[in-house]
Amino acid sequence: MSGTLVLVRHGQSEWNLKNLFTGWRDVDLTEKGHEEAKAAGRIMKERGLTFDVAYTSSLMRAQKTCQHILDAVGQSDLKTMRDEALNERDYGDLAGLNKDDARAKWGEEQVHVWRRSYDVQPPGGESLRDTGARVWPYYMHEIQPHVLRGETVLVAAHGNSLRALIMALDGLTKDEVVKMELATGIPVIYRLNADSTVASKEIVD
């Protein structure tokens, strides 16, 4: 028996649009972000997908994305688990700063290291490895058991929390994962084998 795991990065947020480091700051979706989330839901509906349970972070941009998808597939009241374990990477002192202003202050190379290295933390924040350290156990204990029972699970979260999860699912190296881009509002559909290995993966663009 194989289950289905659908991962969706939230739609465009107000701070994505403004080119600001967001992290754990609780900002809303833009109009485009709402439309991206609704479009993801329509894709799910067209494929006849319904969910047994949904997971999202404690941040509204992911929660609203999750709700748009559930509304689209006719499951507005589906049980949805919200947890900080799925939150975006914490950017610490960079949160709220314009990325260009940060480059002017600390230098392009330093900001690139903070954004794209695997295990270097920005001041007061988390590395991608730190993000994975909270995402992976939560996935193993809370999410994966549903999938292995043959259920269909939705996870609406963030670029870095989902990259950490995809790293584990796809067996990516730390050099490979930092190069991986994850577009807003684009579903990634995994089908897992009973032993938790990946049977198939599809990015629905």
UniProtKB/TrEMBL annotation:
Keywords: Gluconeogenesis, Glycolysis, Isomerase
Gene3D superfamilies per record: Phosphoglycerate mutase-like
SMART domains given in the database record: PGAM (SM00855)
Record site: Transition state stabilizer: H158
Signal sequence residues: none
GO molecular function, one term: phosphoglycerate mutase activity
Residues involved in substrate binding: 9-16, 22-23, 61, 88-91, 99, 115-116, 159-160
Enzyme Commission designation: 5.4.2.11
Active-site annotation: H10 (tele-phosphohistidine intermediate), E88 (proton donor/acceptor)
CDD domains: HP_PGM_like
Pathway(s) this gene product operates in, as recorded in its UniProt entry: Carbohydrate degradation; glycolysis; pyruvate from D-glyceraldehyde 3-phosphate: step 3/5
GO BP: gluconeogenesis; glycolytic process
Protein origin, superkingdom: Bacteria
SUPFAM superfamilies in UniProt: Phosphoglycerate mutase-like
Reaction(s) catalysed by this chain's protein: (2R)-2-phosphoglycerate = (2R)-3-phosphoglycerate
Subunit comment: Homodimer.
Role: Catalyzes the interconversion of 2-phosphoglycerate and 3-phosphoglycerate.
NCBIfam families linked: pgm_1, PRK01295.1
Similarity comment: family membership: Belongs to the phosphoglycerate mutase family. BPG-dependent PGAM subfamily.
Protein name: 2,3-bisphosphoglycerate-dependent phosphoglycerate mutase
Source organism of this protein record: Aquibium oceanicum
